[in-house]
Amino acid sequence: MAVLKMDKGGPGFDRMRTFVRVAERGNLSMVAKELGIGQSTVTRHLNELEEAVGVALLSRTTRRVTLTEEGSRYYTNCLQILRLVEQAAEEARAARQAPAGAVRLSCTAALGVMHVTRTIFDFQDRHPDIRVDLNLTDERIDLVREGVDVALRLGPLADSSMKLHAVGESQRLLVGAPAYLSARGRPEHPADLSRYETIVMSNVAGSNQLLLSASDGTRLVVPVSGRLRVDHGLAAREALAAGRGIGPTHLWLVHDLLDDGRLEVVLGDYRPSPVPVSLLIVPERAAVARVRLLVDFLAAEVAKLPGIRPS
User: Fold this and answer.
1) Is residue 223 classed exposed, middle or buried when 0-12, 13-18 and 19+ CB atoms within 10 A define those classes?
2) Residue 11, Cβ neighbours under 10 Å: how many?
3) Which of 39, 68, 195, 296 qualifies as a cystine partner to 32, CB 3.0-4.6 A?
4) CA distance 129 to 126
C-alpha cells in the first residue's frame, strides 16, 4: 500500500486546512483573506493536495468552487483528521500549560454590544492565551461555512446539525417613555394598542402583531403598526427612550432605562412571549478545550443577565 508523505508534495495539514475552508466557503479569495495568505498560495495548496491524492477534489468555475464526489468524501475524512490532530495537541499541552488558540463566536448584535463583549473581557482575564474573534450579526449564518465555532442565538432554532446548549429564556415586556405615555395616555387593555405608535422590528417574523400572555394565562394576539421599523435592537432601544412609540423588548436590553425612569412598563399584566436563548456549537469543535471553556463561561454569565430565566 502506498504511503502519502507529509513533505512539500504530500497532503500536509496546512493543505488539508486550506482545502476544508475552501470546501466550506466555496470561494478562494475569501479563504485567502481568512487565512492571511495570498490567493496564489491557496491555489497552490489545492493543486498540491489533488496531486498528492491523485484525484480531482474540487470543481472550479469563475464564480464558485464545489466539491466533486471524491472531494466530498475526502472533506469528511479531513475534518475527522484535523479534529484529532488538534485534540491531540491540546491534550499534550494540557499537562504543562493553559489552553490557547482562537475561538470564533457569533452573537446577536444588541446582546453582544451590551453584555457579551464585557463577558469576553472577563473570560480572557482568566484565560489570557485564548483569542476570541467576535462576530456580531442578527443574521442566521451558516456556522461551518463562516468558520464559526459557537453562536449565541435568540429565538427558536431550526438547525438540528449543531450541538445545542440551552441557556434559558429571555423575558420580554412592553415599554414606553414617560413623556410619550403622558402625552398619549396609558393604555389600559391590549386592544388599546392600535391607537399607539409601535416600534416594529423588521427582521423579526410576525412583528406586525403581538402575542401577549395575561397574568391569568389568557393569550391574546394584538395587531400593531408604526411608522418606524428597525432591524437592530439598539436602534429600537434608542427609539423607545426617545418617546417615538411603545414596543416589546427584552429586559436585558432596557433594564438600565427602566431603573432610572427613562422607560416605564406598559400593560404590566400582559407580557410578550419569552424567547429561548441558546448556544450552538459546531459538533467537530465541541470537544476542543478552549471552545468548551468559552461555552461554559458564556452559559453561566448570560444566565445571570436581567430577565434571563436559566434553563
Assistant:
1) exposed
2) 22
3) 39
4) 9
- Paired with 272 in beta bridges are 212
Which SS3 state, helix, strand or coil, does residue 245 take? coil
Contacting residues for 276 by C-beta, under 8 A, at least 6 apart = 154, 155, 156, 157, 166, 168, 169, 170
- CA–CA separation, 14 and 212 (whole Å): 53
- Confidence (pLDDT) at 127: 94
What distance in Å separates the CA atoms of residue 155 and residue 278, rounded to the nearest whole number? 8
**pLDDT tier, 34 (very low <50, low <70, confident <90, very high otherwise):** confident
In this structure, what C-alpha cell is assigned to residue 140?
Answer: 442566521
Q: 137 is written with which cell numbers?
A: 450579526
| pTM given for the model | 0.74
The DSSP element (H or E) to which 92 belongs, if any, is: helix 69-94
95 has a pLDDT exceeding 70 = no
Residue 263: exposed, middle, or buried by beta-carbon count in 10 A (0-12, 13-18, 19+)?
buried
